Structures are given as structure tokens and as C-alpha cells.
């Protein structure tokens, strides 16, 4: 994030006593710089900590001092506005950050509000049409139904592909359980489709170091979960010739370029910024403070010279919207690293069985459908726990119909039932009262169960040797 200070309009005259001498001194030093004054963030916060001792304030003429005051006032105002745009901000209704997702609304998060809060762009029909035109493929139902709903610079990625130029995909997973649940699969299912239609390299990061720092688990346990989750991810069906998977605890020490880019990123972000962006406090372990640079580094192709050589290749990051703060930071530092900003495409969350106020979570086995659940477990969980949008009695339901905005079985069908016409017919039947809750749950069970069974067949074939093929440091198809 760079501020073009020279092109800023100066506000009305301000009193000299608004600023102390150290702040004026800093501004004097900045203004006397002969280069174009694109001021990076590390000069912004806090002003008093970045004092320049080169200029004696007493020697500054009164008129010049007044000008400096005006300019510094506006400079700080702009800087504060920029930090607000980068920072995690949760309102009283919706909480969305990398560690917490919840809402008070039974229908789920207000994603249009999230777009405004995060400053991203909505994926509209025009962009979906361009997607289909440049790929020659029908848009994935996740796109058509707004499950992937928001983006940053997706137009640029599509234009690159249209021009015959390459980019790569980067996504990841913070391993938190031995088995992943179906909510974890949404970004990976879509990423596989992207890899197939664009025929581009894919990098998948497993942040076992993050989980070791954020949760009360040993490093060894975090590594074990990462390897187990890697097998879960491989079973989605990724191309081994075009996919590199790594876990941080094993890989970073083997790749000097990765660590070097981490340090470059760390130099661009101050402690105050990282506290503002991620909400870290004084009691957080120091590993948390530096972790954002670890998740940011793979968004730059220079982190992987064994794959890309010395080529600078743009990156597209498919991820859930809660991961956006990491990549807002990545995009901010990109210009200072003289690298392209990573583009992003954001997904919504698969809700918990008990209702759309929370996303599905591995920490609550009764709120989640896991990828290793049996057909009987899937049936029991949906029948017993899936929140219903139906009415209290059959008679009332026949009269008023069901509410698909809050019904979890229907919400799951929007994710996993690919047939648009069938989904529309189910919606109409349920909302009219013709279809009862039990019938809707039965359709959800019959839709989800075979998907998981087919997945489990693929998962059984992912051995340690297969996993190592994806983990091997090697050149993949670029």
C-alpha cells in the first residue's frame, strides 16, 4: 500500500499546536526526500516512532512549518483510512476473521456486506460470461450459484489466460483434525476444476506450524495431521504432474528462497500493522506475529525457483473469505517486492448442521459431516441435527411452506447437487409446502452419501508413496 503524497490535496489551514516537534521533524525529513514521495506503510504508524533527527525544527520557517503541519495531518488521515481497509473488522452481527466465523442471522452471513467491508468485488454475470468465454467451459455450479462470490483482480487473470500467458494456483489448509469434513472440501473441489480448465500449476500449503502455535498441540501432532490431510486433499483428484504440496514444518528448511521471501515480506510490515490487520495482542506468542509472512510467501512465484526458475508468474488464490486478510497484506507488499499482486477468488462457508449462524467446524463432530463418516453416520447426522426450515406441524407446513433460506439440507444441496433444474424444482416444491422436511433431508442424504463414498474409494488408494510424489521438490508442468 503506497500513498502518492505529492498528488494529495492539502486540507484547510491547521493550528501549529496540532503536532509536536518530533512529528514535524519527521515530515520535514520526508518532504526533503528528492525521490517521488510514495510513502510505504512502515513510515505511517506510529508517526512519533519514526522521528527524523536530520532537521532542526527551530530552523524551519513559520510558513514552511505550517505547510508541514497541513500535509502531515492529511498524511496521517490517509494512512489511518488505509489501515482500516486492511484490518479485520467485525460488526455486531457478522464475525469473519481467519479464526472465527459466526452470525446472528439464521439465514447466514450477509456476503454483500462482507464485500463492502473487505473492499473486494462481486462476481457478476459479466465476469462469469468472460470465464466461460476464455476457458471454453461451462461455469462451475459454485460460480453460477454464488458459492464463489467475490474476487480481487480475477479479470486480470482471465485476460492473461486469454492472451496465452501462464499463471499458477495457490491454496492451502490449516490441518486441525485427522480427517477433513465436507466444508473443507469446497475450496479444493473448485481449485481442482480451475486446474483442469486452465491447465496450470497448483501449489498447496499445509500450515501445520500455524496450528501448533494457535492450538494446544505438539509440533509432532501438527505434522501428523498435515500428512493425513494431505492424503485427504490428494484424493480430490489433483494432477500429480502439475501439483506441488508441502507442509511448512518440513519444507521451509529445505527451500532458502521461501525463507528469503518471508524475510522480505516481514521487512515490509510493521508490528503495529500486523496487530491492526490480525488483531494480535501482547500476550500472543511471537510465532503468530511472523506467521502471516509464511502464508503470504507462496503467493509469489519467486518463492519456488525449482518450479518457476527465474520467471515471475502471477498467482490466483482460491480461498474462503476468512483468509482474505493474509492476502490483502500480500497484495500490499507486492509493489515493494516488485512482484505482481496475487489475485483472489473467495468462497462462502458451508454451514454447520445445527444452523447457518456458524460454519462447519472440525471441533464439533455433531456439527460436521466428515470425509471418513459411514453412510449410517451421514444419515443419522442429517436426520438428527440438520436445522429445518419447515413448519411446526405438517398442516402448517402444507399451508405456509418451508424456508429454504435457513434450511440446512437445502443449503447443502446448493453445494453438492449439480443439476440446476432439479435444485430449482426441489426449492419450489419445499417452499410451496408440497415437499416435507423429511423428504428434503432424504434427498440431501442421497446426494451427499455417494459423493463421500466415491471419495473414500479414492482416498483408500492414496498411500505414503503416492503422497511423497506430491511432496517431492521437483519441477512441475509450467
Automatic annotation (TrEMBL):
GO terms for molecular function: ATP binding; tryptophan-tRNA ligase activity. It comes from the Eukaryota. Its EC number is 6.1.1.2. It is found in: Cytoplasm. One of its GO terms (cellular component) is cytoplasm. GO terms for biological process: tryptophanyl-tRNA aminoacylation. Its main location: cytoplasm. Keywords: Aminoacyl-tRNA synthetase, ATP-binding, Cytoplasm, Ligase, Nucleotide-binding, Protein biosynthesis. PANTHER family: TRYPTOPHAN--TRNA LIGASE, CYTOPLASMIC, TRYPTOPHANYL-TRNA SYNTHETASE. NCBIfam families: trpS. Belongs to the class-I aminoacyl-tRNA synthetase family. This is Tryptophan--tRNA ligase, cytoplasmic.
Amino acid at each position: 500500500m503506497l500513498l502518492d503524497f505529492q498528488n494529495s490535496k492539502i486540507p484547510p489551514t491547521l493550528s501549529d499546536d496540532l503536532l509536536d516537534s518530533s512529528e514535524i521533524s519527521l515530515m520535514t525529513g520526508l518532504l526533503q526526500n528528492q525521490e517521488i514521495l510514495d510513502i510505504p506503510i512502515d513510515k505511517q504508524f506510529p508517526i512519533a516512532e519514526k522521528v527524523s533527527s536530520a532537521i532542526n525544527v527551530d530552523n524551519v520557517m513559520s510558513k514552511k512549518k505550517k505547510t508541514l503541519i497541513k500535509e502531515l495531518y492529511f498524511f496521517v488521515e490517509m494512512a489511518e483510512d488505509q489501515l482500516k481497509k486492511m484490518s479485520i473488522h467485525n460488526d455486531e452481527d457478522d464475525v469473519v476473521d481467519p479464526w472465527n466465523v459466526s452470525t446472528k442471522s439464521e439465514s447466514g452471513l450477509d456476503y454483500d456486506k462482507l464485500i463492502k467491508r473487505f473492499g473486494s468485488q462481486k462476481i457478476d454475470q459479466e465476469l462469469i460470461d468472460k470465464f466461460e468465454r476464455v476457458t471454453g467451459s461451462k461455469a462451475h455450479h459454485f460460480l453460477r450459484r454464488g458459492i464463489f462470490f467475490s474476487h480481487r483482480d480475477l479479470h486480470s487473470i482471465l485476460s492473461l489466460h486469454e492472451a496465452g500467458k501462464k499463471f499458477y494456483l495457490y491454496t492451502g489448509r490449516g490441518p486441525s483434525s485427522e480427517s477433513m469434513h465436507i466444508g473443507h472440501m469446497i475450496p479444493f473441489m473448485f481449485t481442482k476444476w480451475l486446474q483442469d480448465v486452465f491447465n496450470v500449476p497448483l501449489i498447496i500449503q499445509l500450515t501445520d506450524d500455524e496450528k501448533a502455535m494457535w492450538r494446544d498441540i505438539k509440533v509432532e501432532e501438527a505434522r501428523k495431521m498435515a500428512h493425513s490431510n494431505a492424503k485427504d486433499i490428494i484424493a480430490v483428484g489433483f494432477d500429480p504432474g502439475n501439483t506441488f504440496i508441502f507442509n511448512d514444518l518440513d519444507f521451509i528448511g529445505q527451500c532458502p528462497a521461501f525463507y528469503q521471501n518471508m524475510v522480505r515480506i516481514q521487512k515490509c510490515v510493521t508490528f503495529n500493522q500486523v496487530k491492526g490487520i490480525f488483531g494480535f495482542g501482547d500476550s500472543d506468542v511471537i510465532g503468530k506475529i511472523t506467521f502471516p509472512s509464511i502464508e503470504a510467501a507462496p503467493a509469489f512465484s519467486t518463492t519456488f525457483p525449482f518450479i518457476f526458475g527465474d520467471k515471475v508468474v502471477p498467482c490466483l488464490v482460491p480461498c474462503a473469505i476468512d483468509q482474505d486478510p493474509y492476502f490483502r497484506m500480500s497484495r500490499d507488499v507486492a509493489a515493494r517486492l516488485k512482484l505482481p499482486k496475487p489475485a483472489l477468488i473467495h468462497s462462502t462457508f458451508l454451514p454447520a448442521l445445527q444452523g447457518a449462524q456458524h460454519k462447519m467446524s472440525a471441533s464439533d463432530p455433531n456439527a460436521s459431516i466428515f470425509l471418513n463418516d459411514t453412510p449410517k453416520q451421514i444419515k443419522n447426522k442429517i436426520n438428527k441435527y440438520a436445522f429445518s426450515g419447515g413448519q411446526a406441524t405438517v398442516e402448517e407446513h402444507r399451508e405456509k411452506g418451508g424456508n429454504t433460506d435457513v434450511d440446512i439440507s437445502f443449503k447443502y444441496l446448493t453445494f453438492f447437487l449439480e443439476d440446476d433444474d432439479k435444485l430449482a424444482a426441489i426449492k419450489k416444491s419445499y417452499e410451496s409446502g408440497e415437499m416435507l422436511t423429511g423428504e428434503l433431508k432424504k434427498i440431501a442424504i442421497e446426494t451427499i452419501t455417494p459423493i463421500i463414498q466415491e471419495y473414500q474409494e479414492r482416498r483408500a488408494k492414496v498411500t505414503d508413496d503416492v503422497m511423497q510424489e506430491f511432496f517431492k521438490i521437483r519441477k512441475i508442468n509450467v
